[in-house]
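Below: protein 1.
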Amino acid sequence: MKCPFCDDIEDKVVDSRMAREGEVIRRRRECLACKRRYTTYERVEESLPVVVKKDGRREPFDRGKILAGLKKACEKRPISTATIEAVADRIEKRIQEMGETELPSTVVGEEVMRELHQLDQVAYVRFASVYREFKDIDQFMDELKTLARERREK
């Protein structure tokens, strides 16, 4: 590892600890040349799929887009940023576990819908209205009726 202070590549690991629930290893290193210490983080290289959009375009999976959609849907709702981050983490993990190299954007959208359905019904309807592109009030009302029916059955 190259020292950020003197650019020497000789160092020794002074301390190693797990971070982020075991997903990252934090290492304290000491440069053998300048004796200064610095921290590095080690994580498994993630292999996330390419997302195939409705129009056929392909783009790399982007957790930031999921977060932006979740934040927009949860705007002015009693949902913490930490909860939104945890939802994005779960979605990203499930997508990664699918092991696909390419994935239709509909699969990503449905994962978001499933999480929001369990988290907050208002956020779910907000996201669904954009994601499913409701054409009129009848489609919107059908979704609300389905939600109301599910709620009564619980």
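Below: protein 2.
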Amino acid sequence: MSNDAKAEIAATAARLVVEEGLEYGPAKRRALRELGLPSRSPLPSNDMLEDEVFDYLKLFCADTQPQELLALRQLALTWMELLQAFRPHLSGAVWRGSATRLSDIYIQLFCDDSKSAELMLIDQGVRYDVQSVKGFKGEEVDALSIHSLCSPLNEDIGVHLMVYDYDDLRGALLPDERGRPQRGDLVALRQLLDNA
């Protein structure tokens, strides 16, 4: 498949990510269907798709997206401060800067005891759902999912707490293929907010 076809898939998927809040994998698969391409067609990389998402945001959402991102980062900060004992790290679109009001917040926790975060949420009276998801190394991890009101957006936002072992923190701090940090701790998030 030509690079032009991959670029077309990426552009279509970027629209779905921004306009419908789809995650990258489902957005790429739906883009294939919308473009009438075979399901086994080679897909663009996540980096290529992320570049298209940023281009789409600049072109179509420049007047709203920065404020939405700021509101989501402030909500993430609130949760990370509450969960400070579990070494929280923000990841995903809210960390990368491509989030909109349709984006969920992903916070990775690095715990000495994997049940300690759940116990803290119970103690705080926070309602959550638990599911198993693939972690950043492909392993199964618990995700504690919460609905949290984001007042500036007047919307409930999904906040997903991915529970890792403390030992996983070292590997979590490695940069991505482009040398960028894949996640940030409280200090890094506060710096993003100070620079907003």
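The mean pLDDT is 93.
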